[in-house]
Structures are given as structure tokens and as C-alpha cells.
Amino acid sequence: MSRVIAFCFLLLASVLGYLHIDSRPAWAPFASVYPVDIANPVEDSPESPESNKPAKNLKNAAPVKQAQPSLRMDWLPDTGAPSVHAASLITLKDGGVRAFWFAGSREGAPDVAIYTAVFDPQASRWSAPTVVMDRVSAEKGLSRYIAKLGNPVPARMADGRMQLFFVTVSIGGWAGSSISSVISDDEGLTWGQPQRLISSPLINLSTLVKSPAMLFADGRLGLPAYHEWIGRFGEFLRIDASRVIDKRRMSSGRGAIQPVVFADGPQEASAFFRQTRSSSQLKQIPVSETKDAGQSWVATKDLEIPNPNSAIAALTLANGTRLMVLNNIEAGRYRLVMVMRESNSAQWQVIQVIEDDESLANDQRREFSYPYLISANGEDAHLAYTWDRKKIKHVYFPAAWFKHAVSSLKEKEAQ
Amino acid sequence: MRGSAHCAFAKAEFKRDSICSTHCLGPTIENLFFWPLGMSLELPLSAYVRGVTGDLSIVTLLLLWSSMLPSAKKTPLGFKVPLALIAIAFYPLALGFGMMDPYAWGYGSISLLIAVVLFAIVCGLAGWTKGVWILSFAIIAWAAHWHESANLWDYLLDPFLAIWALFAIPNAIYRKRREKMQSGYLFRAG
After folding, report:
1. Do B124 and A253 lie within an 8 Å CB cutoff?
2. How far apart are the C-alpha atoms of A135 and A123, rounded to whole Å?
3. Whole-number pLDDT of residue A149
């Protein structure tokens, strides 16, 4: 008799389980970031679309002649901490830009906190930094022990609120990380309770975030994340508010982390990774592609741009031009460049050398790493990156600068 | 709901202690576990344990709770062995071995749900009714979103349950050998 009751209960559980699966939102296509601007393509003479054409000799490519108008450079405000890293940016509704970064006595120290400041484009000035999250407030909010904090990545939710994803570690090094998030109703002035994202079956260990999220057409977020323990691979998390509702593997093995995603259409996207391969393998940018809005990913041919195991930043402008900021060397992080690929071209070309310490002796070379790119209006670009772990540099590329860079490239090609 | 799993786990552990030892000391220690103790600790001790272990699956919790019942019987090897085999295949794949990720099935795969229901039916037919109740509860908890996770696997399996199942196999082999040896001694001819 008890067995019959148990089976009836199982039947009830099965029906509830089925209804739960049935009520899940269907996987949506990618939302377009900018309104499609087919009428004003940058390039007039279309080239043959050759997929993944390697950017030959990028390492030795000379930058195009100094572009005019000039770039605007400044520093994110000083927090007094000796070590800073992992800056990220988001555009505010009033046109300003909010930056997040972590600072402390050293990377991974218990005193590391996540700071924020706002850039006023009219005054070209940063506000005083404030703390978004420190270790103690994270552990009180999450009701669990937190040993250290890591990368912050902001995102704009479909309802206009701001969400900040950040890495927390309870045990071990960065490999023991998990992702948590906080939501702000007032553009980042105040924040709600932090919540953990559950993304791994092994006591939620080892999921990190570095790259910006992308929006699905149904308003949910797609967050490129990665694992760093045993396997080192990319994962695409589908997020509903503060909950992972699905995830898909973007790569496998131990060679590719920190994916950045370029959407090619509502269903197609390509992801470029920071390589973490063994010394015998090629030090180039691993690539994965999806043709079903991120439901399945296939690793394809590397992009032949050197990568020294360092993060990449990616951005698509409104006219379809793609930008990446990266270290195009096989070892070290002493050179940082911006590369561009026009919408109708397959070629990545260096358009600006942002930092280069190649002429210095090995021990004098500084680290320029963890770039993060956003655009305020689809025509310009804000870049933030770690400058020798001591400061965060902010570079503004005005729309006019890109126009000039494109025309210079054309001139160069014509010659 | 967050944290309740751990609280329950810790309470279950402590309750077992308190039954075994004294009736006064147990609850005191139990409460201490959940109080902020001050000193250099910002959180109660339970939060430190939780930080390290994560939240336990519903199956682990119910097995722990049911083990305290007066009529508690041993969990059959027929449950532990398949569980251990599933864990051996599941964790390497879920942690990046290849492009197939069985953990992703837990978000909404009808096949995984059917497999769990079939497993529960087999448990019931084999005479382990408790298993049917436990797996049914785990499915309902997932459908009702009792944990932080939206993944069915997190309601069914956790590393501690996997380790327990893995250790159960050599333990059972060792016991059987010992029983054989003892029976051999008792009925040795001569």
C-alpha cells in the first residue's frame, strides 16, 4: 500500500516537473544593439567576403599615421590602493559613463573592494570613487564566507535597471570563484542585496565573468562566462534577473577563457577567447561560432592574431565596424593595440597602438591589460584598461577619430 | 529559502549528536553554530561552512533526515552503485571534458526528467519505497524552485553524496568478504 502511495506521489512530481519544463521561456534570438544602419555603410567598395581571413603580420604591422582629431586620455580616480585591475564600463541614461574596477593592497587580497566612479563627458571629468562592494558586505549579503572579490561587469537589464555581476571566491584561488550580482534602480548610486548565480555542479565552484553581457530579444541577458578549474573553457549563461536559467558550453578543454562575443545577426555570433594553451600550442585567439543564438557553439579556426594569455575587449559600432583592443604579442602584456574590421571586410587591421614598451628592457616593460570597450552612441568608443596594475587608464575615441582612421586605412590600401 | 539546506544539514548532524550524548549540551552547541560569535568572525560559523561546501542537494538532505528516523534502514547498494557510476561520468563532463555538458540538461531537459522518474520507478519496484519519496521530493523542490539553483542536478546530486556513494562500493565489498570469512570460520569442517 505504501508503495502505491509513493508511486502516486511520484506521478504528481512528474506532472509538476513537466509543467515546470513546459513553462520555461523559449530560447530567444539576439537583440540588435543598434538600429540596423544599412543605408550608411562605411565602405563603398565591397570586398569579397572571405571568412576569417587572417590578419597577416599583425605583430609587425605599422600603425596608420597619427589620426586627427586626437584621442582623449585620462585616469580613473585614485582610490589610494596600490593595486587596481579589471575595469569595466557602462553608459548611463544621461549620457555619462560609469566605471567599475577593483582595488586593494594586491589582486586577491581580502581588502580588495569594487569601486565605481562616473565620467561626465561634458566636463571630461571623473567623480570621486565610491565603494560598491567590499568583502564584508558581500559575505553579509550572501550569508556565506567570502575570501576575496574579483572582476566586476555591469549590464543594462531590459527594464532599464543596472545589474553588476562580480566574482567572489570562498575557497582557493580564482579557480574557486562563483558569480554574484547586485541590481541598482538608480544608475548605480545604491545597490540591492547581492545574489549568487548557480552555474556549476561542483559546489558552484569556478565560474568567472570578464566580458560584457548581450541582450536577447526577450529581454533576458546572455552572459559570456568561463571556468578556470580543471577545465578552462567558455560558457554562455542565459540569465533571468539574478538566476541562471540555462547555459551552453562555448569551448572545451584547457585552452580558452574570457570569451567576448560579436553578434552577426539574430541567430549568428562569433566568440573570441583569451588563449590559455600549453606552451607547445599556438598562441593565437581561439574562436567559436553559433548559428542558433548561442544554444550550441562550435570551435572554429583560430583568428591569426597573437595572444599572450591575456584578455580581449570587443565592440561593434552602429555602422557594423568591429573593434578589438588586445595585446598582439605572444608573451608579455607590454603592447596594447586597437584592431578594426569593417563591416564588409574580413581583415582585422591595427588602427592604433595604444601602449608599447617594446623598446624597453624586459624588466622595465609594464603591463597593459584587461581592456574593456563600450560605445556611448554607437559611433564613439570608451576604453578602460589596467595600466601597470597601478592605475586604470581611460581613452575616449570620438566618432570623428574613427572616420579619420577609416579614411587613412583606405588611403594606405590605395597606395 | 537560501541557507535552509545547510541549516538543516548542520541541525541534523547536531541533532544526532544531541540524541547520542546529552540533552542540554547539544542544542547549545547547535545554536552557537548559527550565532554571530563576534571576536574576529563577521559571520556565524554556519556561514563559514556554507561558504566552503555550498548548498546540499534535496536527496542528500532527505537521506540525512531519514537516517535519523527510528525505523531507519540502510540505503540499498542498488541505489549507491548507479549513483556512483552517474557521478563518475557526470562530473568530468560537467567540468569541461568535451563539448557535451550533462549539467546543462538539468535546466529543462525532458529526457533527464524522464530518466529520473524511471530511476525512481526502478527503486520502487526493487522495494526501496523511500527512494521514490526522496526523488519525488527532489523533482517537486526543483519545480517549486526551493534552492537558489534552477538546475535539476543541484536537487539530485552534490559532491558529498557522490563521495558517499563512491565509498559505499569498496565498503560493501569489504563487508561481504568479512562475512564470508566469518561464515567460513563458523562452518569450517573438522
Report:
1. no
2. 33
3. 96
Can you tell me the distance from the alpha carbon of A234 to that of A270, in angstroms, rounded to the nearest whole number? 12
Beta carbons of A77 and A117 less than 8 angstroms apart = yes
Task: Tell me the longest C-alpha to C-alpha distance in chain A.
Answer: 89
Give the C-alpha separation, A170 to A39, whole Å: 51
Cell of A234: 567558455
Question: Are the beta carbons of A200 and B142 separated by less than 8 Å?
Answer: no
The SS3 call for residue A23 is: coil
- What pTM did the predictor assign? 0.86
Q: Which three cell numbers stand for residue A42?
A: 562605411
Facing residue for B132 by CB, picked from A6, A24, A170? A6
Residue of A306, A324, A328, A305 lying closest to A316 (CA atoms): A324
Of B2, B96, B159, the CB nearest to A233: B96
- What distance in Å separates residue A177's CA from the closest CA in chain B? 11
pLDDT band at B168 (very low <50, low <70, confident <90, very high): confident
User: Distance of alpha carbon B27 from its chain centroid, rounded?
Assistant: 23
What pLDDT band is residue B10 in, cutting at 50, 70 and 90? very low
Residue B179 has pLDDT above 50, yes or no: yes
For residue A41, is the peptide bond before it cis, meaning its omega torsion is within 30 degrees of 0? no
Name residues of chain A where pLDDT drops below 70. Answer: 35-68
ipTM attached to this prediction:
0.86
> CA A291, CA A265: separation in Å to the nearest integer?
9
When the pLDDT of each residue in chain A is averaged and rounded to a whole number, the result is 90
CA A4 to chain centre: 53
What per-residue confidence (pLDDT) applies to A297?
97
Output the nine-digit C-alpha cell for A96: 555619462
Q: How far is B97 from chain A (nearest CA, A)?
A: 6
Question: Which B residues, 44 through 103, put their C-beta within 8 Å of a C-beta on chain A?
Answer: 47-48, 50-54, 90-91, 94-101, 103
If you search the block for the grid coordinates 549513483, which residue do you land on? B83
Angle between helices B159-186 and B58-67 (to 10 degrees): 40
Q: State the first-to-last Cα distance of chain A, in angstroms, to the nearest integer.
A: 89
B111 within 8 A of A204, measured Cβ to Cβ:
no
pLDDT score, position B30: 58
Integer CA distances (angstroms), A125 to A97, A122, A131, B22, in order: 10, 8, 18, 66
Given this model, what pLDDT does residue B131 score?
93
DSSP A288-324: EEESSTTSSEEEEEEEEEE--S---EEEE-TTS-EEE
